[in-house]
Amino acid sequence: MNQIIGKRISSDVILGVGDDAAAIKTNPECTQLVSSDSQVEGTHFNLDWIEPVSLGKRAISVSFSDIAAMGGTAKYSVVSLVLPNNLTLEFFQKLFSGIRQQTEYFDSQVIGGNISSGSDKLIIDITILGEVKRELLVSRSNAKVGDHIYVTGMLGNGVAGLELLRYHGLKYPSKYKNIVDSYLNPTARMKVGGNIARSKYATSMIDLSDGLSSDLGHICTNSKVGAEISYDLLPKDRLLNEIHSKSPEELKRIILHGGDCYELLFTVNPDVPIDLIKSISKESGVKLTRIGYVTPKERGIILIDAKKNRETLKPLGWNHFSE
Amino acid sequence: MNQIIGKRISSDVILGVGDDAAAIKTNPECTQLVSSDSQVEGTHFNLDWIEPVSLGKRAISVSFSDIAAMGGTAKYSVVSLVLPNNLTLEFFQKLFSGIRQQTEYFDSQVIGGNISSGSDKLIIDITILGEVKRELLVSRSNAKVGDHIYVTGMLGNGVAGLELLRYHGLKYPSKYKNIVDSYLNPTARMKVGGNIARSKYATSMIDLSDGLSSDLGHICTNSKVGAEISYDLLPKDRLLNEIHSKSPEELKRIILHGGDCYELLFTVNPDVPIDLIKSISKESGVKLTRIGYVTPKERGIILIDAKKNRETLKPLGWNHFSE
After folding, report:
1. Residue B296 above 80 pLDDT?
2. Residue B118 and residue A40: Cβ atoms within 8 Å?
């Protein structure tokens, strides 16, 4: 593993890959952030339509997204791989090259890992260590009644890209390349997440990896609040309308419940000047859209649909033991 | 996951399970240690002969062993599970109960994790965060020519226990219970590892999870030295002799190359008084055995066998891409 990872050791890394454990000097001015994410062949990706380099880059972005959602900076990755017996060394080297490229893109470093065999599926499990100044940490727990709810970027593109790949493989219509790229190369919102945190105006933040309905639900549960959002306000790529022109219900499902989305949702006090939101958006190069507001807990989570009807928005995200 | 893990939050844990990432206050006086280990059904365990509680406890001990090998203390665990679709909630709860019991036994805490599905095999991937005072950190890299080589406990019991389970299932002869327990409930050598580190006499240390030949090889490679060890000096359970009375070559293979061993190997300067070694052994309640000494690199790694013949000891540990 040593040779493949390379040795880009920062002065805070006392021991990197190649001992029983990595040894690092932590930053006493910061709170450490720790998160892990797994990508399972067949569930999260299919080797028929994702190249190993892309797969490695994607696995890192997906994991880094959790650190972005706390307003933090990713520092170190620990990469555990379970490899099927038929996987070639060439595939592994390309996969690891993608992991390393994306890690370095975010000025971060692989410090450890583990390789096992014996599964029929390729499994990539990445633990990220990040950091954030204590006073800038944004959790899921402090959204207040009346706060405005914002999201970054566009909703639904990730899962729409995944569905295009599942249906067409790599022969999807070329005009949908950006949609497919949202799945293949999701952008961990490190920069805008950091800028939102530094503004000190966000009361809560989360990434939308489980889908809008589930993740807004997590904010509401943890903050003990309700929410009201409007379907018409949700930022949607016009190509999604085109793909689902004959199935508006399917489009709605994708936008509201689709996972594989690495945009951020955050809440801010309604007194925050709109110019501040605009300047965060401009500095980060990311669209920020207000989609609703926080309500008292007893009102639940309400969606105002396209016809101005009010409906309860139930979380339909993934839960292994939901049944 | 929240409910199952419980909420035993130390004051250093700002956010535990239930946000995008855990947030912890690190100890500015210590170097942080980070390690991960995977347990794959069929490769590392078989559900026919390991109960879910034992499996959870074992997964933690195996992971903590890497922190012990640095002389450190384990603080936090991040638990990633990939669950087969047919796995029951009851099994999962028992598995997690074992993980939690063993984590708390070592005065440590689960702070995060991730659950995925889609594999045919149960996979448990655990990342451990530990700590050690900077001046007490023991790596693999500082063994010096002339140093004495010691191991803790007995060699070969883990893999011998695994082989008994593979052959007999849970109906193995009861007199071999201790051998089987070495596999089912390995003891992470946290206490003796910490005591060895605090003595400041160890020049290098490693756990024997890949087997003696491989792990002594790692020490020699990282420290740029050779080694000479004597087969007769290696600590062996007398029951292993009994099990393999008709196959001394098989016994030798188990002792020299068998993995699933969570004993520690360490090197110390030859001037270290034997009374100090004895006092570490006594305080830790763990047998310490001198098995050989460190030689110049060009002499390679030599085994003096039972008939006093010298042979080169080749590492035969596991390597996914060894062929």
Report:
1. yes
2. yes
State the sign of the Cα–Cα–Cα–Cα dihedral A88, A90, A92, A95. negative
Residue of chain B whose Cα is closest to the Cα of A73: B21
Q: Which of B21, B65, B130 sits opposite A130 (nearest CB)?
A: B21
Q: Which of B44, B111, B119 sits opposite A123 (nearest CB)?
A: B119
Q: What's the gap in Å between the CA of A307 and the closest CA on chain B?
A: 34
Q: Average pLDDT for residues B63-72, to the nearest whole number?
A: 96
Q: In this structure, are B260 and B112 located in the same domain?
A: no
One domain for residues B301 and B166? yes
Report yes or no: A24 at the B interface, CB cutoff 8 Å.
yes
pLDDT the model gives residue B262: 95
> Which residues of chain B are within 8 Å of residue A117 when distances are taken between CB atoms?
40, 43, 320
- pLDDT of A245 > 60? The answer is yes
B159 with B302, same domain: the answer is: yes
When divided into structural domains, chain A yields a total of: 2
Residue A165 sits at the chain B interface (C-beta within 8 Å) = no
The mean pLDDT value for B230-240 works out to: 95
- CA–CA distance, B108 with B102 (Å, rounded to integer): 9
Q: What is the pLDDT of residue A128?
A: 96
Q: What phi, psi does B7 have (nearest 5°)? A: -140, 70
Q: What is the CATH number of the domain that holds B216?
A: 3.90.650.10
Q: Are B282 and B273 in contact (CB under 8 A)?
A: no
pTM of the model: 0.92
Q: What percent of chain A has pLDDT over 90?
A: 81
Tell whether B123 is within 8 A of chain A (Cβ): yes
Res B235 pLDDT > 70 = yes
Smallest CA–CA distance from B69 into chain A, residue = A20
**Residues paired with residue B137 on neighbouring β-strands, in sequence order:** none
| Same domain as B109, residue B25 | yes
On whether residue A320 sits in a domain, the answer given is: no
- pLDDT for B9 equals 60
In a domain, A165, yes or no: yes
CA gyration radius, chain A:
20
User: What angle is formed at CA B237 by the lines to CA B233 and CA B240, rounded to 5 degrees?
Assistant: 110
A173 inside 8 A of chain B by CB: no
**Given this model, what pLDDT does residue A9 score?**
61
Instruction: Give residue A81's pLDDT.
Output: 94
- Cα dihedral angle (B212, B213, B216, B217), rounded to 10 degrees? -150
CATH of the domain at B87: 3.30.1330.10
Res. B160 pLDDT band, cuts 50 70 90: very high
pLDDT at B8: 56
Model pLDDT, residue A323 = 33
Q: What residue numbers bound the domain in which B48 lies?
A: 2-136
Closest to A75 in 3D by CA, of A83, A64, A86: A64
Q: Which H or E run includes A211?
A: none
